[in-house]
Amino acid sequence: MGANEKYKEVLSQLEQNLELLEEKINKHSQKQSGEPHHWGYVGDISYVSEKIERILEFIK
To answer: Which of 1, 3, 36, 60 is 20 to 30 A removed from 26 (C-alpha atoms)?
Structure first.
């Protein structure tokens, strides 16, 4: 397998993971709305946000 084929394979998996991430964030948000004073959700989403920011910094 060449580099271009591997890139496309990994990119496809990444796109699937991004869709799954969006689904999971939406579910997490729904849970949080049922417990709006629970700080655990803030910690969860802050952790995810920090990781995404690091990824965005890396891939610029």
So the answer is: 60
**DSSP symbols for 1-60:** --HHHHHHHHHHHHHHHHHHHHHHHHHHHHHHHHSTT-HHHHHHHHHHHHHHHHHHHHH-
Structure pTM?
0.87
8 Å CB contact between 48 and 40: no
| Cα(4)–Cα(10) distance, integer angstroms | 10
Residues 20-45, buried b or exposed e (16+ Cβ, 10 A)? Answer: eeeeeeeeeeeebeeeeeeeebeeee
- Number of Cβ within 10 Å of residue 48's Cβ equals 14
